[in-house]
Amino acid sequence: MAPSSTYIVSGSVDKTVRIWDTTTGNEVMKMEGHSDQVNSVAFAPNSMQIVSGSDDKTIRIWDATTGNEVMQMKGHKYRVCSVTFSPNGVQIVSGSADKTVRVWDVIIGNQVMKMEGHTDWVQSVAFAPNSVQIVSGSNDRTVRIWDAITGNEVMKMGGHTGYVLSVAFSPNGAQIVSGSSDKTVRVWDATTGNEMTKSDRHTDSVWSVAFSPNGAKIVSGSSDKTVRLWDAMMGNEMIKIDAHTRNVWSVAFSPNGTQIVSGSDDNTVRIWDATTGNKVTKMEGCRDQVNSVAFSPNGAQIVSGSGDNTVQIWDATTRNEVTKMEGHSDQVNSVAFSPNGAQILSGSGDSTVRIWDATTGNEVTKMKGHSGIVWSVAFSSNGAQIVSGSADNTVRIWDAMTGNEVMKIEGHTDWVWSVAFSPNGAQIVSGSSDKTVQIWDATTGNKLMKMKGHSDWVQSVAFSPNGAQIVSGSADNTVWIWDAMTGNKVMKMQGHFDWVHSVAFSPNGAHIVSGSHDNTVQIWDAMTGNKVAKMEGHSDRVNSVALSPNGAQIVSGSMDKTVWIWDATTPNKAIMMGSWLFQGEGWVVLSENPHIHLFWYPPELHYTCDPTPCLHIISTKPQKPQTYLRLDSGALGSNWESIFSP
């Protein structure tokens, strides 16, 4: 698959190389020139060229735009089984039935190096991510690592009892995966050569293996006609896809890791959803409960953390999924954007805190240290530090650049549900199952204050924009405001009928928004404590709420597997369902004056009527059809006379 995920390249026994559009499935280009079957193909890192290896003993480079042959490289004595570009795009490595591994210069086509050592066909080759090492798999049942600069053999790994048909490095270069005719998929330590995991669920030869872009998963294709996904750390099978009607020769992940492409001698190339294993037909969104949501600093995107172990980025305007990040092995409980919007932070039930590149979706850093579920994570205002709260009863501070643990703060006697930095980064607030809200010095870790008052777990805490106050939400169904300087209780807000899972201040500090187990989102006046608005629509508990940077919108994530966006500027209209009511006979009328008819709704469309006041819903659950009334092209008053004549 091309780095852009837009195109797929395939090689065939019909001697051709073809490019396909991943969206439409249509063939874009056919390249002819090989005189025998094509065994291996790969895009260059910049997607501008394609390399192919064939039974005709040649390696060819093609222009991916025009389809023209750019170069032909000869040197192998027998069929070329495997080819690929180096990550920097300047070299090509090939493996052949002549038992050699060869490196070629992409610019002039000269052979740079020949590596000998295998005693049988070399079936598969791959560069390390840093381009300085090469891994090869052979019919001699070994996996070998070579120095790409000197050509020296660095390591030989034995263990397979059959031909090694496919090999690949993990994205960080620390591991190697191999697939074999012994029906197993094995993961090796690239430094020591030790076997780390062995997966043996395939019932026939494994022809192709690949790591996901974040290194958390492995995909394999087999003669048993299946494509399987494995946990790269544990070796457990995650998904089995009954993919093809004949041998699966090749598999690969899309660059963002959300899709898998497979090629088979049933003459098809297929694309699969890497999370569900379903054949891809359209874009999909949240597949499980939404535990956490947050706006990007510019308000253009929303990030969500879900019970399906993923972190997803959404376009706040179109509602389309922009990126899905996979790597956590348990549900994602908390997410946050960095202050500059370039990175995303996540905390998970797998006890890790992770940083992701918000543009590419790649995992940047994984932080280990907690011995329990990570319930909450947050960046400091300058983005230099990260704070996390966990079921191990601790609050921890991490260096956002290195991922190193800076400090471990102990003091809570039960789970820490929520943590946040003060706006100036000098303090940290935490809420716990021990029913307390505590403030800590972010430099020394010393406890500055302990606030008591809640009669049940404190599920969420946040500082006001000026740092003068703290808001807390609790399983006692209340929202409290505290003085951050003295620790005194300022106000208690009641109105929810079940646990309050999430609270947040508006950017100007004038309002507080809360999300609850009673399925509602509520807005409160931060000065008086009065309820300003109650927004209903979620069909299950609201786990997380956040406001856009300009305070105009509220985003909520729920157990009902949806993310909703609400208009925060007209909350009263939200309560009144947009100031209109739908009457059963078909008329839509003003809610404040039902005698005023706005428009008539045809009977055949009544089932599509949805008076929900939210602006957008992001969901994969089957939604009933909806009807939208557009007035942007309407003609009102005297303008109607120029359009309609009785």
UniProtKB/TrEMBL annotation:
Gene3D superfamilies: YVTN repeat-like/Quinoprotein amine dehydrogenase. The keyword Repeat applies. WD repeats lie at residues 1-30, 31-72, 73-114, 115-156, 157-198, 199-240, 241-282, 283-324, 325-366, 367-408, 409-450, 451-492, 493-534, 535-576. InterPro entries: PQQ_b-propeller_rpt (IPR018391), WD40/YVTN_repeat-like_dom_sf (IPR015943), WD40_PAC1 (IPR020472), WD40_repeat_CS (IPR019775), WD40_repeat_dom_sf (IPR036322), WD40_rpt (IPR001680), WD_LIS1/nudF_dynein_reg (IPR050349). The keyword Repeat applies. Keywords: Repeat, WD repeat. It comes from the Eukaryota. Pfam families: Beta-prop_WDR3_1st (PF25173), WD40 (PF00400). SUPFAM superfamilies: DPP6 N-terminal domain-like, WD40 repeat-like. This is WD40 repeat-like protein.
